[in-house]
Write a structure and sequence with these properties.
The chain is of the alpha/beta class. It is built from 16 helices and 15 strands. About 45% of the residues lie in helices and about 15% in strands. α6 links the parallel β6 and β7. α3 packs across α4 and α14 crosses α15. GO terms for molecular function: UDP-N-acetylglucosamine 2-epimerase activity. Keywords: Isomerase. Belongs to the UDP-N-acetylglucosamine 2-epimerase family. This is UDP-N-acetylglucosamine 2-epimerase (non-hydrolyzing).
């Protein structure tokens, strides 16, 4: 019975790994062990509770004001003991967090196979996004099985010299999570959100938190959003404000007190996903929302200069607008005021998955461990299934 050790530490990882952990635990052929670093504590716990996951190991590394160096050293030290004790046949990591890179490194130090879920995303700029771009590249160099979400991600890995038979295109597990979470009947515990969504009033959903956007870039983003709120009194702006003090201070300085802007605390995943489903337009510097919102038919303006998810840009449902105040304002205005422009983005094909990524990853693991003789099946943009 192969033993699989899944390791994650932040809310985005937990959301995307939760359906895979759940699916693995249903497989009698595998022993599944879960370790969390708690690189994000509170936000991680919210997702664990939602998906009813109880970790076997919790490193609990989060400290106020922690640096990347501190996160790296604490995760590396904590995982060594876990891996030595459990002796897993494979470690599964996800995406591009510091926990992801360090878990792959810890596995390598113990000569343990590593499987990388959401492998192959690249911008080509090691400082954008920072530190995620190098986290995923370094993790990729240590990976034995690459679960690429799209053909483009596979092409990135091939260009780096990864062996073709070590790459499997599966779709993205975030779609698996999203499709089981969004519910048209969902009611919000927050009375402000419940009143807003029940009223049918249109609203724009904003998220902004990335390290490279702190300071002047984020100030430009917030000023553009304030102008949008001024221009559209018929529409609200809802902003779940990240807990980082630098983000919060700037958000309240520029957007606080505006009648058209609703500043709220960060939401658990379930209400957040349902809020996104009811929004009119999404403005974000998040990576995951570039995958989630298109699945819900929501146009997305990405508040970054680069993206490791170009598939949705090509498909037309996502646009890169950067952090220039005027460009953000004008692009948002265009989408909000031109019905044809809006429809073109909202109806674009989602290239990221069909809700079957976890099933495909388990097929890949079965094939790797000799539990099935047939080659795994791949995901492609049309949703059709075909052999490698």
């Amino acid at each position: 019975m192969p033993k699989i050790l899944t390791i994650f530490g932040t809310r985005p990882e937990a959301i995307k790994m939760a359906p895979l952990v759940t699916a693995l635990k249903r497989q009698p052929e595998y022993e599944t062990v879960v370790a969390v670093s708690a690189q994000h504590r509170e936000m991680l716990d919210q997702v664990l509770g939602l998906f009813h996951i109880s970790p076997d190991y919790d490193l609990d590394i989060m400290r106020h004001g922690q640096s990347l160096t501190q996160v790296t050293s604490r995760v590396l030290n904590g995982l060594e003991e876990v891996i030595v004790k459990e002796q897993p046949d494979m470690i599964l990591v996800h995406g591009d967090t510091t926990t992801t890179f360090v878990a792959a490194l810890a596995g390598y130090y113990q000569q343990t196979a590593v499987g990388h879920v959401e492998a192959g995303l690249r911008t080509g700029n090691k400082y954008s996004p920072y530190p995620e771009e190098m986290n995923r590249r370094l993790a990729g160099a240590l990976t034995d099985l690459h679960f690429a979400p799209t053909d483009e991600a596979r092409d990135n890995l091939l260009a780096e010299g990864t062996a073709p038979d070590k790459i499997f295109v599966t779709g993205n597990t975030v779609i698996d999570a999203l499709l089981t979470t969004v519910d048209k009947r969902f009611q919000f515990a927050d009375p402000v959100l419940e009143e807003l969504t029940a009223s049918g009033k249109k609203f724009l959903l904003l998220t902004a938190h990335r390290r490279e956007n702190w300071g002047k870039p984020m100030a430009r983003i917030f000023r553009a959003v304030k102008r949008l709120a001024d221009n559209h009194p018929e529409m609200a702006v809802v902003f779940p404000v990240h807990k980082n003090p630098r983000v919060r201070q700037l958000a309240h300085e520029i957007l606080g007190g505006h009648a058209g802007v609703v500043l709220i605390e960060p939401l658990d995943y379930q209400p957040f996903a349902n809020l996104m489903d009811r929004s009119q337009l999404v403005l974000t510097d998040s990576g995951g929302m570039q995958e989630e919102a298109p699945s819900l038919g929501k146009p997305v303006l990405v508040l970054r200069d680069t993206t490791e998810r170009p598939e949705a840009v090509v498909a037309g449902t996502v646009r890169l607008v950067g952090t220039d105040e005027e460009k953000i304002f004008r692009q948002a205005e265009k989408v909000l005021t031109d019905p044809d422009e809006y429809a073109q983005m909202a109806q674009a094909t989602n290239p990221y998955g069909d809700g079957q990524a976890c099933k495909r990853i388990i097929q890949c693991l079965d094939y790797y461990f000799g539990l099935r003789s047939e080659q795994p099946m791949e995901f492609n943009y049309s949703g059709e299934i075909g052999k490698y």
